Amino acid sequence: MITLHVFGPGLGLPDPSPFCLKALTLMKMSGLPFTADTKGFGKAPKGKQPYLVDDGKMIADSTFIRWHLEQAHGIDFDRGLTLAQKATGWAIEKMLEDHTYWGGVDARWLVDDNFNRGSRRFFDAVPALIRPLVIAMVRRRQRARIKAHGIGLHTRPELESLCIHDLEAVSDFLGDKPFLFGDTPCGSDATAFAFVSGILCPMITTPIRDAVEKRANLMAYKKRGLKRWFPEFEPKA
Ligand SMILES: N[C@@H](CCC(=O)N[C@@H](CS)C(=O)NCC(=O)O)C(=O)O
Asked: Over the stretch 154-164, which tens digit does the pLDDT of each residue have?
């Protein structure tokens, strides 16, 4: 019995967190039966989602989740890929997760208009009296994290230009293929699909999103992934 702990649909996406969307996509790719639980954030072993519980064993972090599915359930997400393709896929994934991700965090959490249209909703369940304090604390924490990463030491236009470069590189690599390495999706497509979708979050306005919208192949890639893995998903405003 597999339970995947995620945030649940929000911000016009099957999950507002690209890491949760990646893990959900991996589960869909695996074909294994699973339940998505959206109430487990308080028990997240590393304070972050996604995490997975498989027969009592807890695995936190989307990459460890993938490795667990491969090792414990014999899923080969990269079937048919060469070692060079696997290495390239890994590099693309880690660029998106450890670099591009922060451009999304900046746009969603630190740009007031975006925050008010989007992430502010995550706090609707917090009692009104303490809500402003909690919101201020979480936004301060996000600012500190972006700075600690290093990318947050740049000006916003500089930061955006770096993230645009990442996504244009993904677009150039994808070219006219349906998935990163051809007609069949591989493990890295779960990540690329999740992060491209995340930056296309309908509630945020950012030059990063504008740049992605100019790349027809990335727009089609998101649409293709949604249709394949989340056909039941209907975005709500
Ligand atoms: N390396 C982790 C990153 C997970 C992550 O950063 N999750 C974020 C959501 S995108 C989270 O749970 N943040 C909650 C918090 O930091 O309070 C993975 O691959 O799963």
From this structure: 999 999 999 99
